Amino acid sequence: MPVPNYEPWDETRAAEVIAEAAKQDGACMPILHAVQRTFGYVPEEALPMIAQTLNLSRADVYGVFSFYHDFRHERAGRHVMKLCRAEACQAMGADALHKHARDKLQIGWGETTADGKVTLEPVYCLGLCACAPSGMIDGKVYGGLDNAKLGKLIDRARAA
Ligand code: FES
User: Fold this and answer.
1) Pocket of ligand 1 contains residue 83 by CB under 6 Å
2) For the chain: N or C, fewer Cβ within 10 A?
């Protein structure tokens, strides 16, 4: 999956993105996804724009936005690393692996490294349980992760 090149926040651009996505059925989710794909997160300013477009209250839109962990409050880093915290991965030592990742990146869950290169997010099963512990970087999945493998992936992402 190509590394996203997020656009800076721009209200006019957001209005275009929202109007285009609003043509789809059940538009709230598609709009939120479209806004996040464009800007790397869902800016606070976009929520009332979405509410107005869909004739919903701000609270309705905020409720959807905050319910789904995939929607971000802050711009993602250049690379998004998701590590699986579900049961099969936990059973295969994911906790220690995740601590290694957080220590190496010097960030916590949902945070982005100071150089803006990597955002670390939890995910709950990638369908790769047989190869646990698993993770995903920029949409590409990796199984059988250990500290060494994950460390190389992190180094590669930070160097790119
Ligand atoms: S539990 Fe981690 S991939 Fe399924």
Assistant:
1) no
2) N
Q: How high is the pLDDT of residue 31?
A: 97
Answer yes or no: is 123 within a domain: yes
CA of 68 to the centre of ligand 1 (A): 19
- How many domains does the chain fold into? 2
Tell me whether residue 121 is in a domain.
Answer: yes
**CB of 131 closer than 6 A to ligand 1?**
no
* pLDDT score of 3: 61
**Residues 151, 98 share a domain:** yes
Cα–Cα distance for residue pair 53/32, rounded to 1 Å: 12
Q: Is the CB of 119 under 6 A from ligand 1?
A: no
**The dihedral formed by the CA atoms of 13, 14, 17 and 21, expressed in degrees to the nearest 10:** -170
Ligand 1 contacts CB of residue 125 (under 6 A): yes
Q: What is the identity of the amino acid at 48?
A: P
Residue 54 lies in a domain: yes
Domain holding 91, by residue range, is: 79-159
* pLDDT tens per residue across span 45-56: 999 999 999 999
Residues of the chain with pLDDT under 50: none
> For residue 148, is it within any domain?
yes
